[in-house]
Specification:
Blueprint lengths: L8 H11 L2 H8 L6 H12 L1 E2 L14 E3 L2 E3 L3 E3 L11 H12 L3 E3 L7 H5 L5 E5 L5 H14 L3 E5 L21 H13 L1 H9 L21 H9 L6 H9 L5 E6 L2 H9 L4 E4 L13 H12 L4 E5 L5 H9 L4 E4 L1 H33 L12 E2 L11
Helix pairs in contact: 1-14, 4-14, 11-12, 13-14
Length: 390
Amino acid sequence: MANAWFESVAEAQRRAKKRLPKSVYGALIAGGQAGHTMEDNVRAFGELEFLPHTAELPRERSLATTVMGQEISMPVLISPTGVQAVHPEGEVAVARAAAAAGTAMGLSSFASRSVEDVAAVHDKVFFQMYWSGDKDDMLQRAERAKAAGAKGLIVTLDWTFSSGRDWGSPSIPEKMDLTTMVKFAPEGITRPRWVLDFLRGGGIPDLTAPNMAKPGQPAPTFFGAYYEWMTTPMPTWADVAWLREHWDGPFMVKGIMRVEDARRAVDAGASAISVSNHGGNNLDSTPAPIRVLPEIAVAVGDQAEVLLDSGIRRGGDVVKALALGARAVMIGRAYLWGLAANGEAGVGNVLEILRGGIDSALMGLGRASIHDLAPSDVIMPPHFTRRPTE
């Protein structure tokens, strides 16, 4: 299509809203409780300002870096997100786009496509795990991911099931049986292109979690996997260290918002951490990660790779995070909107928008490489950062 290309993540979101059924789109934009955290994730970047140079700007800029042992062409990774019912190819389309862009991808335990399918089209996959089931279950999933070719493990800890929403959660069915299809038929009628895409791709999504399947058993439904997760005792730092001992590759702890937790993660053996509040989908009134990033980066940045996710919408946001201590960022909603808007090409479109924005910001700041960025490139207003009350 001649008009398939879009020029901003905001336009990708607009097209996603136009294409997706109401419930599916609602699942992409929903934030915990009143949505204060989700709003602050985006707003905080706008409070930071650049201080550009005027002359002797670099003619060429380097965006390349390494994360968790993988060389990537720019400091933007695909963050693991759950069941991707926005497009029939789901995570496989995302993986192909990430591979074409030269960057790495996190794959969720709750993904709609298996780790084997995704690793078959991309060789830079990090497998994400929630603390779900017993230790044998955890090891089985990790070993399966390793056998499929996963290069690193991401353990997500930033979740307390505080996800009730003041305006009501989007309706997500447990399985797509006849009764459910009749119930959601009015939404499908209003979004026929989405329905046709899935029918051409093999049928309406079955909402299972293939990466949570136990050996010899069928994949559980998304809510079946979610229930196991909810009923599993929350891990201790000793548990995290135990899993680290059983995984011999790069190991990231995702969900860090406090300096002391960053230090505990490093002590447990993490080679990377992600400063994250789960995209605003967890405990509401949590500050944007960019507000706590500088202190965490100073505390542990020489011991582990520090990444950031939540709220990235522009290449300039990426550069602000790097200037304040992040090695790279991970994106979630942005690429899902791209996937909804135009499939694999839409994901690639979002990544190229971010790449262009990073490059432009580097030029304006007079930096020849992302590794040259420094806090002095950013003007931080008073009271921007957040610290616990003494």
